[in-house]
Amino acid sequence: MEKSNFSPTAVGVFRSPYFFRIGPPNRENAPLIAMYVEKKLVPQHLVIFRDPNETFSLSLSDALIRQFSEDRYQTPIIENFKTADKDKDGFTQHIQDVLTKYHPDFLFIPTNAPTDVTTLLNAIPPTQEYAKLKVFVGSAGYELVQTGAAFTGYTRMLISSSAFPDEWSLLALGKPLPSFFKEYPAIYDPYNLHPQSYTYSRVNSQAMLAYDAVYAFLVASGMTIQQGGTPIPKPNPTAEDIKNALTQIKDSRSFQGITGVISFGSDGNPINKIHFLLHVVDGGYVHVAAYQGCFLVNSTCDNNINIVE
Known about the structure:
The protein contains 9 helices and 10 strands. The chain is of the alpha/beta class. The relative contact order is 0.14. The model is unreliable at 7-11 (pLDDT under 50).
């Protein structure tokens, strides 16, 4: 059970019939990213920095390139780089050469390494020409924001995430907040010494996804045990039992997770799972820019893309 789409198994390299995940795959996130770029930002000179030897970087960049092509939008310029390369000076020079040559108005760098993001942001000159330049940084940018430290160019960032701690206030107004959001700060910041700090009083997206992944496994385990019959339940479920139970979590057996509706397809991917595009504003605060997917179980969901700001 994988919480998101950031590991090699999660992007499809080592898929098995026993693979399930909570966050949607890159190919399902690409339409959300592309529509926001095309309709909200409307750039004319797009550059994608990607690592052709890193599965997440290649998978997400390929998905976005295909989406731009299907939408008949501008064809991005592709620049290869090495993820988490220790030669930061070399990467900085590469970025500056790209800026000089192409004068991009949108940069895209799918990476899991926060150091790649800081190197890119630091390499952008603080001039009027690049004042409105936006940079899509994937999940790595969220890691930087969660540190609470100020860094160069943070308001340029657009972040992709399958969970957001404020999603209930946006998508479930009037609904009771799951107890998880009270229990988490009570455990990790019992004396309120770190108000609004990620991993203390404020849960991060990875912890939310991990919680739902474990909960889905427990739900499947319970289903398997109950299928053993009464009064003699099945005491030791096998991997095959758990897999078969997980495939039954759909339609009327879908359940409410803290990150949205939990429902699995036959391929182990979540069905119409909510996904967010976030942006960072002054002060380091994170706002929802757009979202797509189903959030509340037993509610109407058209799975349309919604641009918020």
